[in-house]
Specification:
Elements (H helix, E strand, L loop, with lengths): L2 H15 L1 H4 L4 H11 L6 H22 L3 H23 L3 H16 L3 H4 L12 E4 L10 E4 L5 E3 H17 L18 H15 L17 H13 L5 H14 L9 H12 L4
Antiparallel strand pairs: 1-2, 2-3
Length: 279
């Protein structure tokens, strides 16, 4: 799938989700911004949609940053370590232990004697999983399996493979949980809002996205800078001028004007290169 098609699908999902229904950029807010910054009447609907998409992104990113990453890392590490331990325990089962597991299963499945089965709930016997011999001719883990009754048989070999996959998935997720990093993640929650704001400014308002801030107070000194402040305060009244300055500059330095989705691949290449992500 090419990038333009992919973006079209994302936009379609956004439209289906009706971002404007509960977005902070109401018709009244958009009308105020349009009057203040001369956004053309014919562009108000798309402007509202783009800004509310940015507001949704800000909400999700803020929720992400406020997670307890320490707790997440501890739980992920526990899953990884326990998966490894369970694999070792599975491999360590000797023949006598396996025989006990097998006979226990056979007893649950086939014994009809009340003398033998009286200590079990017979009504649950048919649905009870048990260890069985899956491949008697082999001596490794594939010789044994877990019969899950209605869910089918899965060999110990397959169980080990699944545990390995779970261990790898968990350990590789640690980076996402900020493993090895201290403090709070960088606050880029306004990024996507400003990404849309940049395109609205250069395409609809038709002016250079010039950002100038007072050195000491960080108060905006240009219309584009004030535009960013006004948008940020709609989604987060407590947004600091310093953060607005930092994120808006980042967006300006990495962005370029695009007028259609067909220009998206070129925009992406330009953004990736300027962000220092290019190979």
């Amino acid at each position: 799938m090419d990038e333009v098609t992919a973006l079209n699908q994302v936009i379609t999902r956004f439209i289906d989700a009706d971002l404007n229904a509960d977005g902070p950029f109401t018709e009244e807010v958009i009308r105020f911004l349009a009057d203040k910054y001369s956004v053309p009447e014919e562009n108000l609907e798309i402007t509202r949609f783009v800004l509310n998409a940015g507001a949704r992104s800000h909400k999700l990113e803020t929720e992400w940053m406020n997670q307890d990453f320490g707790k997440a890392r501890a739980q992920i590490k526990a899953v990884s370590e326990l998966s490894n331990k369970l694999k070792k325990a599975l491999r360590g089962l000797d023949s006598s232990t396996l025989n006990i597991l097998e006979h226990a299963g056979l007893a649950r499945r086939y014994a009809q004697s009340q003398e033998i089965m009286g200590y079990l709930n017979q009504s649950a016997l048919a649905a009870s999983p048990c260890v069985v011999r899956a491949a008697p001719e082999r001596s490794d883990l594939s010789n044994w399996a877990l019969d899950r009754v209605s869910d089918g048989i899965v060999s110990f070999e397959e169980i080990e493979a699944m545990l390995t996959g779970l261990e790898i998935a968990a350990s590789e997720s640690l980076k996402m949980a900020r493993d090895g990093k201290k403090g709070q993640p960088e606050d880029d929650s306004l990024h996507d809002l400003f990404l849309g704001a940049y395109q609205i400014w250069v395409n609809f308002i038709g002016k250079p996205f010039t950002l100038v801030w007072e050195k000491g107070t960080k108060e905006p000194e240009t219309a584009a800078a004030q535009w960013c402040v006004d948008l940020a305060r709609v989604v987060d009244p407590d947004a600091t001028l310093k953060n607005i300055d930092t994120v808006s500059r980042k967006v300006r330095e990495r962005s370029k004007k695009i007028s259609s989705l067909e220009e998206l691949p070129d925009f992406k290449d330009n953004y990736t290169k300027r962000a220092g992500w290019a190979d």
